[in-house]
Give the backbone structure.
Amino acid sequence: MRDNVRTLLFAAILAACCSFALVLASHYTEPHRRQNEEADRVRNLLFVLEVPLPQDANAETLTRISKTSLREGTLGGEPIFEYFPDMPPTGTPDAVAIPFSGPGVWGQIHGILALESDLVTIRGVRFYKHEETPGLGGEIGTAWFQEQFAGKKLVSASGTAEFRVAGRAETNAQNTVDGITGATMTSLRVQDMLTSLAKYLSEQRHATAK
Amino acid sequence: MPQPNEGPHSHANTGGCTSCRGLCKEALKEGIYKNNPVTCQVLGICSCLAVTNRLENALVMGGALLFVLTLSNLLVSLLRKQMPHRIRMVAEVAIIATFVIFFDQFLKAFYWDMSKQLGPYVGLIITNCIVMGRAEAFALQNPPLLSMLDGIANALGFAAVLALIAVARELIGSGSLLGVPILSDAWYVKNVLFVLAPGAFFTAGFLIWAMNAIHPRQPSESGV
Amino acid sequence: MNSTPALNIFVASILTNNILLASFLGMCSFLVCSNSIETAAGLGTAVTFVLVSTTTLNYLIYHCVLVPLGLEVLAFIIFIAVIAAFVQFVEMFVERFSPALYYALGIFLPLITVNCAILGASLFMVLREYTLVQSAAFGLGAGLGWTLAILIMAGLRQKMGYSNVPEPLRGTGVVMLITGVLAMTFMGFAGMMNIQ
């Protein structure tokens, strides 16, 4: 009996000490962690909008810049981020960043699309989270793939709202980029995501034009 | 020179630091190379392969294990006389998990990029057989200072193997070390396979081959 | 929110993202127990059962208890406690209702608790933000994938008894090299899926 009591007592004290120590540590590190998470969230936004950043900006700088230059807004119910290079924000934003996500082949693909103020021309794109095969579908996260998007548009020459990820022969078209060899399905998924975004934006443009 | 027949338990008669120094050196040698946790005891392979795609990741993981193993060995050794036998494994896991979480929180707060790189593998140190293994096999039977040294030694041995594998993988696979390009793009075609999963297995296999060729094992230990 | 179809996750965790060949989890037991096909099959079944159960259980505990209370910091400890308790429970259950199976599995059941694949699956589940169904699919797929890998290795090792492996490579070394080739083979599965 005494043995059992001793065992229980030891277990209880150990559990209490461990939990207490952990909650203390968590409490102490929480402000830093929150700041890191926030900086992560805005880092992609700032890069894709091509906001000028100082060399080696740390979490604090990024958060500060995002608070001054970015403003959250909505476009037909979807959250967007508007970039105003001048202070205070005046009139229409210089560029708009729209987060998007959709199913990839092996997991969810998360990205941000930056558009110029006409909401048609692409300033840049970043696929910042995905589970695609490294070297194949995973190439969507690389610089060479993402850089192609700059200057492309979300409408074809004939005015249809669509975006294509296709073979190299077609990349002269204003709404097409080169796909990834050996990663047809990932390329198609990206195409679907961006086309549906293009259609959505085209509806929004028509809605505001009326 | 380590005293020949002095096992870890019997340092009562020679007293003081002379015998301890011998034991300490022995513990260090054992952990780092005579009984290396990875190549000899074949423990901790999972993290060995997962985080060695870049040297920086490997070094941080080595640091993590140094922190966790040293402190958990120390605490388990300090509590070894009070610990009830029946729940000793659970208690060990609780202690190990606490230190692992400390390190994980520290990484997330002050070294965020690395935390993302290492992903779940920091948490998996809890199930890393080296930590549990040393707690059970050594810390429970030995005084705190010696246990701490054993922890340091095993962690250093682990870190050394990790660094070796990582150097090979990063150099061959990305042509760089610690992010600094070493083999220039001009003539070196990166062998991307080495930073992917198969490369990890191949590098580990070759390393084990090399170590066994340098230190041949006793016949009873081999066998397919 | 992760909107990948659960079926894709299931197939991915067996083939392209095999928990052992791509995520390196469960290596220790893999190296030790891949000597014979019977052992491998027994261990694999046990691991699969524990995996699918604990991943689902841990999902429920994480989302219904830890998150609402803001205690995510205790996630690792709670997960491993759940796994240990579950394995203990399974051990008692099997011993009581099927002594034959208990003797067959022998020491493997306690080994499963420290199998990094089990804890690893729960950690991935949190990291990839799976839903309940996705977690279950992932757990089942991971278990089957692990079993597949260890069965293949067991079969190969039995055949290797007739080969002339160089002395320093025998045992762990050659298993590593073969696992590397296996990993390369499984990489070839990328692109086979065309669901939807």
Remarks:
- The two ends of chain C are 20 Å apart (CA to CA).
- Residues 37-69 of chain C form the longest helix (33 residues).
- Chain C has a mean pLDDT of 86.
